[in-house]
Amino acid sequence: MDVVSTVGEGTVVSPDGDLNEVTAASLRRELNRLVAGGCREIVMDLARIREMDAFGLGVLCAARTTLNREKGSFSVINASPELETLLRRTGLSRHVSISTAE
Questions:
Q1: Which residues are CB-neighbours of 32 under 8 A, at least 6 positions away?
Q2: Which of 16, 21, 34, 54 maximizes the CB count within 10 A of its CB?
Q3: What is the pLDDT of residues 64-85, one digit of tens each?
Q4: H-helix or E-strand spanning residue 65
Q5: Sheet holding 41-45, edge to edge
Q6: Domain with 51 in it: what CATH number?
Q7: Residue 6: how many CB atoms within 10 A of its CB?
C-alpha cells in the first residue's frame, strides 16, 4: 500500500514493498490522480522499497516527465544505496534530485 501525505506545498508518496511489473500500474494511477488533482510537487520516498525493476523505473520517469510538463517538481528521497546505484546507472539521477537513506 502507498502512503500519501502532504507536507507544505508538496506531496510525499511512500510506496511499500517491491516496485515492479505487478505494482507499478497502481502507483502510476496514484501519481496521475495526484497531478490531475493539482499537485505540482511530488517527493517519492523509497525507504520501504526493497526492489525495483524496469516497470518501477518507468513510473518514476513518467512522473518526472508529467510534472516537468506541468511546471512542477519530482524528487526521490531515502533511496537505498542499491536503488541509488540503479537510478544513477539508468541516467534518471541526471533529471531527478535523489537523496539516499542515512
A1: 66
A2: 34
A3: 999 999 999 999 999 999 999 9
A4: helix 54-69
A5: 3-7, 10-14, 41-45, 73-79, 97-100
A6: 3.30.750.24
A7: 10
- The model's pLDDT over 20-65, given as tens digits with 9 standing for 90+, comes to 999 999 999 999 999 999 999 999 999 999 999 999 999 999 999 9
Q: Are 93 and 63 in contact (CB under 8 A)?
A: no
What DSSP string describes 6-64?
EETTEEEEE--EEESTTTHHHHHHHHHHHHHTT--EEEEE-TTEEEE-HHHHHHHHHHH
What confidence score (pLDDT) does residue 49 get?
96
What residues are paired with 14 via a beta bridge?
Answer: 3
pTM: 0.89
Q: Which one-letter amino acid corresponds to residue 84?
A: E
Tell me which DSSP letter residue 95 carries.
Answer: T
Domain boundaries, position 12: 3-100
